[in-house]
Amino acid sequence: MSKITIQVRLYPTPEQARLLMAHGQEYISTVKAHLPSAVKNQALRDAYSVFKRSLDLGCIPLLKKPICQWSNQNWRMDQGMLLLPLSIEGKVEQTRIRCADICLPGRVGILRIKKKRGKWIADIALTIQNAPPTDGKAIMGIDLGIKVPAVAHIRGQGTRFFGNGRYQRMMRRRFYAQRKKLQKAKKTRIVKKRQNKESRWMKDINHKLSRQIVNHAHSLSVGTIKVESLAGIRKGTTRTSRGASARKNNRMKNTWSFYQLTLFVTYKAQRLGIKVEQIDPAHTSQECPACSAHNKAQDRTYVCAECGWRGHRDSVGAMNISRRAGLSDKRIGATGA
Ligand SMILES: [Zn+2]
Q: Which residues are found with C-beta within 5 Å of the ion, ligand 1?
């Protein structure tokens, strides 16, 4: 089972929008007040989760934007309509708000309504049943990098490259240059905005890449996908660039985006019943896939000095990852859940 949140666009009437805004403002003032009343249980649970999140983030969260939540018993979505109780002039009434007509693939949980960039959005928590394990036997190893965003190797079936490293580097440089310029001009608000834009752009790419990778795995009957240990990615020990250009690429390392891509691959694979194992990534790009000797690739081709094995240097990492045994749960620093 995995938990996800999906976003559904809402189309409230002006009157409904006014009501939602009023509810949101009332709601966050309740959460801020930490009222210990039994009736305000949900608000307290929020206060708690906000508090817990603040521990992760290391800062005190600001509930500035009006949001409002309903627990799963109180709302439903049906044929492009969201039905939920709203308090209208002191009386609670079931209200129908038009929304995007989508099918909710799982057990629904909390509904949260917020206004984002002028649009009303419903965040819906879903618990999704993972597919039963596939009977696929093939094993895929995935190596993430700067030059090639993702390399997937399926044992006995070859290597495939995903993403456009050159384009991603160019975009990153552009975002970086703009940020520097704005920082110099002390335009902090716009800097923040640009940063958000960059992370939305990256998230979108990671969603697309992970979808392509998992579809590729699925179509070739992969039963197990091996990825670099998430703990390693978090610590920033992942090998993201090779050779002399490492320093130049430091800024680009952006380990959180590797972390995000790995998480996306993990949950998308698990939903199809594909097992995901984490492996220790040490020396995966240097080891010879045939005899395990350590070599440094000099140019595009990796040549083993011991046994003479030759291959594309960017595929060596993924080949080795596909051969390695998965880490036991104890050694995995972070799970993909
Ligand atoms: Zn060798």
A: 288, 290-291, 293, 304, 306-307, 309
- Please report where in the chains the tokens 């003032």 appear, as a residue: 29
CA 287 – ligand 1 centroid, Å: 8
Residue 34 predicted with pLDDT over 60: no
**DSSP label at 334?**
S
Give the position of tokens 């109180």.
74
Region of poorest pLDDT, from 25-29, 82-86, 101-105, 292-296: 25-29
Q: What is this structure's pTM?
A: 0.70
* Four-way CATH pick for 138-323: 1.20.120, 3.30.420, 3.10.450, 3.10.20: 3.30.420
- Helices 188-219 & 255-271 angle (0-180, nearest 10): 40
Residue ranges of the domains in the chain?
A: 2-128, 138-323
**Confidence band, pLDDT 50/70/90 cuts, at residue 325:** confident
